[in-house]
Amino acid sequence: MELKVIPVVQVIIAMALMAAIQSTIPTFAYTLQLSNYISGSLVFIGIIIGFSAIYSFRKHQTTVNPSKPESSSTVVNSGIYHYSRNPMYVAMLLALLAYAFYLENLLAFVICGVFIWYISKYQITPEERMLEKLFGQEYQHYCQKVRRWI
Fold first, then answer.
1. CA 23 → CA 33, 38, 102, 104, 144, distances in Å?
2. Which CA distances in Å does 64 have to 34, 40, 119, 123, 145?
3. How deeply is 147 buried, as exposed, middle or buried, from its count of CB atoms within 10 A (0-12, 13-18, 19+)?
4. pLDDT tens digits for range 3-12
5. Is residue 147 classed as helix, strand or coil in its secondary structure?
6. pLDDT, average across residues 45-67
7. How far is it, in rounded angstroms, from Cα 66 to Cα 120?
8. Helix, strand, or coil (residue 29)
9. How far apart are CA 30 and CA 33, in angstroms?
10. Contact 11, 92 (CB under 8 A)
11. 3-state secondary structure of 105
């Protein structure tokens, strides 16, 4: 599998890059009085989505380990997975967006875009190949019905 760095570590790296941007290039800072409320709301929504995804996986008794998609025992297509094929990554992105709003630096949002690109290329695409190999037509049909992100 192409995965080199587990997704949680990717989020930590992205947050560290955002903090570095904030401290070294503060000229892209802005002030938005609602930033803290937006940040808090995004974190709250992300937590709900993340726990819903984990609950769905546990309910179907399949792995939540992103580095071992070959251990999947079923295609989870109910609950939050009825709306997104990757709600855990959506939750991680919401955490990054929350942090970007909290930092109030426009360049921090660029890291969110880099995260989407990286996780799509090096995590989601290999996972999808493995799931298609494991579940064939069932997974293909699921992919046709449900978007990758939202």
1. 20, 21, 13, 12, 43
2. 34, 26, 16, 13, 22
3. exposed
4. 568 999 999 9
5. coil
6. 91
7. 13
8. strand
9. 10
10. yes
11. strand
Structure tokens at 135: 């579940």
Sequence-distant contacts of 27-34: CB under 8 A, at least 24 apart: 28/105, 28/106, 28/107, 29/104, 29/105, 29/106, 30/104, 30/105, 30/106, 31/104, 32/101, 32/104
Q: Which amino acid is at 126?
A: P
Lowest mean pLDDT across 32-36, 91-95, 115-119: 32-36
- In the structure encoding, which two tokens stand for residue 25, read together? 């290039």
Cα pseudo-dihedral 88, 91, 95, 97, rounded to 10: 120
Q: What angle do CA 8, 119, 55 make, to 5 degrees?
A: 55
Instruction: Give rounded-to-5 percent helix, strand, coil for the chain.
Output: 75, 0, 25
Q: What is the largest CA-CA distance in the chain?
A: 51
What is the rounded average pLDDT of the residues 123-150? 95
52-90 burial code (b ≥16 CB/10 A, e <16):
bbeebbeebebeeebbebeebeebbbeebbeebbbbbbb
DSSP, res 78? S
Which pLDDT score is estimated for 70? 76
